[in-house]
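Researcher: Last one for today. Full complex below.
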Amino acid sequence: MARAEFGELHELEGLCKCGICQETFNTPVLTQCSHSFCSLCIRKWLTTKAVCPACSSETHESSLRKNTVLENIIEALERVKKNRKGVVAARSPQKPNARAPSQGPSNSNVNSSNKLNQNLHPSVPISAISDSDTDDSDAFIKTRPSTSKISPKTNVRSNVPKETPPRTPCIKPQTTALNQSLTPKVGASPAVVKVACPVCSVEMPQRVINEHLDKCLSGGTTRSSVATKVAATPTPVSAPSPKVAQRAPDNSSNLPLEPIKKMVYNLMPDAQLRKELKKYGLPTQGDRKCLAGRMQRYVVLHNAECDATNPRTLEELRKYFEKEERALSGPSNTTKFSSMFKTKQPDEDEFDKARKEYIRQNNSSFQNLIEQCRNRNKSKTKEQSVQPVTLSDSEDDPEEVPVPTINKTSKDSDSDSPCDDVQKTPHHKSVQRPKRKVLSIDSDTEDETDFDGRPEKRPSLEGNTSPVLVSKTPVKRELRNRVVHAKVAEKPQRRSLKPKQAPKKEVTKAVVNKASPMKVIDSEGSDSLFDTPSSADTIPCGQVTRSQKEDSGDDALSKFVTLLDDNSDSGSTTDFEI
Amino acid sequence: MANIAAQRIKREFKEVIKSEEVAKCAIKVELVSDSYTELKGEIAGPPDTPYEGGNFVLEIKVPETYPFNPPKVRFLTKIWHPNISSVTGAICLDILKDQWAAAMTLRTVLLSLQALLSAAEPDDPQDAVVAKQYKDAPDMFRLTARYWTAAYAGGPYSNPDFDSKIRRLTDMGIESHDARVALSSFNWDLERATEQLFS
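Model: Here's the assembly. Have a good evening.
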C-alpha cells in the first residue's frame, strides 16, 4: 500500500517536470494550448520558433500565462519530498512522543511560512527550503490521511525507498485523479492544520492538539501559554523563515519588475540598443549582432523573472545574467571562430586551385595568342625596321611575352622623350586600373576623366614614334628585362596580365575616339605602345602581380573569358596583344 | 556544453536507461565521451518488418544549443531504407530537422526512428534508389532490406540466392559491400550490376 502511494508520488513528481529542461517546473507558465513549461525555458524556445514544444501549435510569448495552481502543487510536492527525506534522516529510533513536541512548534507556523514560501518559491531554489519545511510537509502528509486508510507515519518510516522507482510513462488518467485529490488539499492544508482546542477554543496546529488537550484538561495550560508557545517557537526552528522575512521587505523596497516590451532589434539603431542595454546595466561593447543578441537574451530572462511570484531584484538579475553570458561566450566563441576559419580556408584553397587549373587548361590558347602576337610583332618591327636587339631579346627567352619586351622599349624611348610626365601618368593609372577595370569594362566615364589630358599630349609622343626610338637604349632595356625575369617567377601569372590590358585598351581607344576622332588610326599604334609599357613596367615593382593575386576568382576568370572572347574576333585581339 | 544541455542530456540518458524499452531491449544508449556531447544509440529492428532481428547503431551528436536545436543523428549500421541513406546513414526525418521541439527527448527520438523503420515514407526519400525500389518492387525491397539487416545488423534471415550472386561478383575482385550495393540497386539483376560495376 505504502509502496503504491510513493509510486503515485513519483508519478506526480514526474508530471511536474518541464518538458524543455526536464527539471521540476520553475515558475510554470501555461500556453494557449494548455501546456506548461518553465517561464524561462518556453521564452527561450519561442525565440527560436513560435510553436509549442509539446504539440507544435502556434504559440507566442504574449499568450503565456502564469500557472499559479501548478506552482502551488509543486511547492506541496517539494514539501512532501523533503518530509520523506527528513523522515529517513530521523529514522534513528525515536518515540513518536519525542518527536511530537519538536514538530509541534514548527507546525504552528505552517500558516505563515506557507504563505511566505509561496512567495519565495521561484527565486529560492527548491532545495534551499530547508528542513523546517519537512515538518510542514509532514503535517501535510498527516493531514491527508486523516480520512485515508493508512497511517502514513509508520509507513513512511518503514518503507521509504531511497531510490525513486522507475516511473511509468502512461499515467495521465491516474494523475488527473491525483491532481484532483491533491489540489483541494493544498489549498486547504493551512486550514486543516489548525484545530481549535475543544476546551479552551484556542486554535493550534493539529499536531500539538493532543498534547495541549492533555495539559488543557489537567488545567495546566492557559490560552496565553499556548499563544506564547506558538509565537515563540517558529523563529528558532524554521530556519528559512528569517531569510524569507528579510527578503520580502528587500523586494518590496525595490521597484517591481516590469516586463520589457517586445523590440524589433533589426530596426533599432545601435545607439538605441546601447541605451537599452545601459538601462539595465549591461555591457555595451561588441558589434551590432552581439548587442542585439545580448539584449534579446536579457529580455527573455527579465520577462521570465517577471512571472515569478517573488522575482529577484534587477541587480541580482544583472549579476546572474553576466555570469550566464560569461559561461556562454567562453567556449562557444572559440568554436565559432574556428568554424569560421574552417569554412573559409578551404574556399580560398579551392578557388586558388580552380584558378590555377583554369590557367593550366587554357595555357595552350594563351600560348597560341602569344605566338600570334609575336609573329605579328616580328613582321611589324621588320616593316618598321626595328633593330634586331628587340628580336634577339625576345629570343633570349622564347617563353617571354613579347608585349612587355616591346613595351619596355617604348618605355625607354619615352623616358628619353621630352614629355616624361605624360608617360608617368598612364603608368600610375595602369597600376590602379586593373582593380577598377575588373569591375566593369564600361566604366568609360571615369576613365575618360582620367585620360583627359592625354590626347593633347599624345601627338607630341607620336611625333617621335617609339618604333624608331626603340633601339636607343638597349642596355637599359635589357637590364630591366632581367629584373622582370627575376621578379616574376610564375610565367602563367604573368601571362594572365594580358586580360587586364585588354579592357583598358578598349577604353583608351574609346577615349581617343572621343577626344580626337581624326587621329584614331594614327594613335592606334602609339597608343598601344604607350599604354602597355606602363602595365609591363609595374611587374618589376610586383604590383600588378600582387593585385592579380588579390583579385577574386570571378574577376580572373571573367578576364580570361573576355580574353578568349576577344580572341574570337581577331581584330580586337591583335590590338590587345601588342 | 551549455549547462542546460548537459544537464538535460544526463537526465535523458538516465531516462532511457530506466525506460521500459531498454528492459525489452528495444532501445539503448551509450556514452562515447564523458562530456555527453556524443552518444551512441542502438535500436532494435521492429517486429514484422524486414529489419526484425537486427540491431542498428546510431551516432548521436548533441549540439550546444540542445534542446533548442535537434540532436544530429545518423545510422552507423548500413541499412536499406527509403528515408535513410544507404551510403552515409543520413536520416530524413522531420523531427530531426524543422519539426524538432524542445519537449522531445533522446528516448522519443530513438522511438521515432524505430517507428520510421516500420513506416517508411517513400515520397520524401533520402535514398532515391531505395525509394524507387520500395515503390516499384516492394517485394524486392523487402527481401533486400532483410538481406541488408542480416548482413550488417545481425539479422537472422539469410538468402542463399543473393549470397551466390554476391559471391559471383566478389570472385571477380569486387568488394562484397560494393557488390551488395550494386546488386541491390538493380533489383539483384546480376548482369546489370556487373555492367555498372565494370563500366
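The interface with chain B takes residues 19-23, 41, 44-45, 48, 51-54, 56, 166, 168-169, 327-328, 331-332, 335 of chain A (CB under 8 Å). Chain A has a mean pLDDT of 59.
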